[in-house]
Amino acid sequence: MPMKELPADARPREKLLARGPGALSDTELLALLLRTGTPGRGVLQMAQELLAEPVIGNGGERRGGFGGIAGLLHAELDDLKRVKGLGGSAKRAELAAVLELARRAVAQQLQQREIFSSPGAVKQYLQLTLAGRPHEVFAVLFLDAQNRLVALEELFRGTLTQTSVYPREVVQQALHHRAAAVVLAHNHPSGTVQPSRADEALTQTLKAALALVDVRVLDHVIVAPGGALSMAEHGLI
User: Fold this and answer.
1) How far is CA 60 from CA 54, 55, 56, 188, in A?
2) What is the pTM of this model?
3) What GO biological process terms does the UniProt entry carry, in alphabetical order (predicted)?
4) Pairing of strands 137-143, 54-56
5) Which residues contact 54 (CB under 8 A, 6 or more apart)?
6) Each residue of 4-56: pLDDT tens digit?
7) Residue 98 dihedral angles phi and psi, to the nearest 5°
């Protein structure tokens, strides 16, 4: 149903102002951000289609939506450009801006308090930052003596093994940031967050290298679009 045909109290903007943003569904919130649909497709329908589960064709092409809010916000700008109604730059820029604001809000929390007073925020921050990448990315959160975030750096890309992640570079950056501790992180584009044998071996290699300069490895977090896993919580550090 077109937005203008909805009862006034069912329109997303009026509903938000009357009852607060928590009263709106994901579709309604996204429709507010998009503002307009396309000819023959109202903005609510467009929002619903964007949030639908993706469909992968026989040739590997992607159709359908992005699998919810997280999938949409992690989408690459080129992926959004191919969606009917998002070909222009304005709406794509707004979606990218929302994701960046979310990242910065969580990063600010981590800079102001001890990271492990809010482990959920760490996972959320890493998911916002890494989970949607189409390739593997290895990153390090460098922490001060109070375990507050000093910097996040993406150090390596590609298939992650002991030979593709260089301990010397991780140690150099830890010294550069005068870090007292680190949280290691990488993504699994496949969607699983279970650590592989290579992940476990890499963690132990980096832990030993950083111990030589008195820098502790507090955790290794694996993220994917659907979740995150803390190796420390599973006794793997």
Assistant:
1) 12, 9, 6, 18
2) 0.69
3) proteolysis
4) unpaired
5) 62, 63, 64, 65, 66, 67, 71
6) 667 766 788 888 888 998 888 999 988 888 888 888 888 898 888 888 877 65
7) -60, -45
| Beta carbons within 8 Å of 217's beta carbon, 6+ residues apart | 181, 182, 183, 184, 203, 206, 207, 210, 237
**Phi/psi at 25 (nearest 5 deg)?**
-75, 170
Short-list 41, 47, 53, CA closest to 2: 41
Residue 104 vs residues 178, 182, 191: alpha-carbon distances, Å: 22, 19, 24
| Sequence spans of domains, the chain | 8-87, 115-230
CA distances 106 to 18, 33, 101, 216, Å, are 28, 21, 9, 23
190 backbone dihedrals φ, ψ, rounded to 5°: -65, -20
| CA torsion, ordered 6, 12, 14, 17, to nearest 10 deg | 160
Name 211's Cβ contacts closer than 8 Å, sequence gap at least 6: none
Q: Which residue in this structure is represented by tokens 């910097």?
A: 151
Q: CA-to-CA distance for 142 and 176, rounded, in angstroms?
A: 10
> Among all chains, which residue has been given the structure tokens 């309604």?
28
- Please give the CATH architecture assigned to the domain spanning 115-230: 3-Layer(aba) Sandwich (3.40)
Q: Which of 180, 128, 123 is nearest to 151 (CA)?
A: 180
Determine the residue type at 235.
G
The encoded tokens of residue 155 equal 């150090």
Checking if the pLDDT of 191 tops 70, the result is yes
Q: How far, in Å, are 32, 52, 58, 68, 165 from residue 55 at the CA level? A: 25, 9, 10, 13, 33
